[in-house]
Amino acid sequence: TPTVQELLSVNNARMDQQEEHLLNTGRAVQALVAQVSELTSQLQQLRSPAAPPTPLSPPPLTNTEHLPEPRLPTPELYAGEPKLCRAFLTKCSMFFSLQPRTFATESSKVALVLTLLSGRAALWGTAVWENQHPCCSSFLALSEEMKRVFDRAVVGREAARMLTDLRQGNRSVSDYSIEFRTLAADGTSSCMGWLIVFKGKYSLWIYPLIWMDSLIWRSELTPGYSNVISFARTPWHLISLPVQYLPPRIRTHAGGRESVGGLEDFVFTVVRLLSGGVLLEKSSSTTLLPVRLQWAAAFHNCLALVDSGAEGKFMDFDFAHHLHIPVVPLTHKITVNALNGQALPDITHTTGPVTLVTSGNHLESITLLLTLSPLAPIVLGHPWLVQHNPRVDRGHDSVSAWSDSCYASCLVSACSSVSCSLLQNESVNLSNVPKEYRDLKEVFSKSRAASLPPHRPYDCAIDLVPGTSPPKGKLYSLSAPEREAMEKYISDSLAAGFIRPSSSPAGAGFFFVGKKDGSLRPCIDYRGLNNITVKNTYPLPLMSSAFERLQGASVFTKLDLRNAYHLVRIRKGDEWKTAFNTPRGHFEYQVMPFGL
């Protein structure tokens, strides 16, 4: 008996023969139709009476029936893709319209459509042809049946629903526009309604580009300070963008048009000069740090521009007004001049003291000069860089290291979810604590245990065996609950200063293990690091010697330290050896981690 494989091979061969037979039949029918059409036209010419000669009348119009039909390539094969069904049928309909004599009958149209099917569509076409399905009677019937079987295009209300849910996301404006117009063509709403929807679904970063494009390509704009300044001082007349939204990177381009005499660079320079006298670098070299502003009982997350060319620390005036940040007038106004000596608006106000949190755990009290800077709500200039001397990772827009003075001041005061004011005014009920232990109040302070401890003589040292280096572990995959726990752990640890972003060549694996209460404990695979660490050979006391000192005692007290491991700092310079990898990024410990 034949095997299943042999039966399948025979079946495939028969299907190939049927498909070839169908193609040959279609070609023969097409040729036959052409011959019949030609004979019919010749017969009509013989039967029609000759017109009497009229030399004075204008020459008769050419009969379009006798013009040769254009030679067109047949439509591409259709393999049954749902989104391409209507496009294929539209091409076939236009093909028949341009060759009416060749495809004068419905059977010829149906035959051509069936010959253009491939794949699963060809299998379907073979079945309906062999079974003489009613859809084979005309091209219109075949089109309706093919739409019912293959077409999954969205039209009407479904297209309108998808259109209202459409977002630009990370796509280019051209890609977003193409999909929008495709869905809008199938919708039923007015053009003005769709225009409002289209402009409302841009990504936020596109709005400054729209304004800048209008500034650069405005028809009456000429390369002169007067015209550019007069237009740059006007509001964003095209759109209204909240000033707290700053694009992660504003990239400029000419939109496919040629730049006229370096006008683009000129306009960007003038606009930046008008933004409070802060001359920003080209967008490709700017660094935007995520920061957190705290004042009174309020806070706000935004982006700060780090600019070594700015001679101060600035905040946009409208930005401060929008967030209701306290404003203090200056005793003496500050005069600002551009690089070319042109006078710019004077600075007359400053913010009250606010707390600026950078990189999760760097806290400082700061006052910012208020100016007009709509493209950068916060600008950290040269004085801020000199004060903190940060090591900025421009590739990831983050700070990987701070100056020594920051570790003694800005980073020590970092805390997680506890307000900094609670560190000094923490009230603890000691009524149930024996008086012999009340002097240990600060040792068991919850807020102090959640902050970065100072360096001490007994910091945890990590001495490596000579000639070795910490290995790089693998990145563990995390489940959804584990990823959520990881995000919380990283955020809290960054805020407390226990960890910081790392550029270390080492990187241990990060994962979780379950606790008895069902919660998750973060673990780091330091086995490779432990294997190359010089062991501490200091002798431990014997158990018998320890118990001898307890003889005769009847009362025992157990003291459990809060965050015991995190109360000990890693020796300065050894932090890079504790680096670990997570799906969120690369970090290193400043305190003693578990598993070391």
TrEMBL record:
Q: Where is this region: Disordered?
A: 45-70
Protein name in UniProt: ribonuclease H
Q: Which organism is it from?
A: Cirrhinus mrigala (Mrigala)
Q: Where is the composition biased (Pro residues)?
A: 50-61
Indicate the segments annotated as coiled coil, or none if absent: none
Supply the InterPro entries for this chain. Answer: DNA/RNA_pol_sf (IPR043502), Peptidase_aspartic_dom_sf (IPR021109), Retrotrans_gag_dom (IPR005162), Rev_trsase/Diguanyl_cyclase (IPR043128), RT_dom (IPR000477), RTL1-rel (IPR032567)
Q: Where is the Reverse transcriptase domain?
A: 514-596
**Which Pfam families does this one have?**
Retrotrans_gag, RVT_1
Q: Output one GO MF annotation.
A: RNA-DNA hybrid ribonuclease activity
Where does the Retrotransposon gag domain start and stop, copy by copy? 112-186
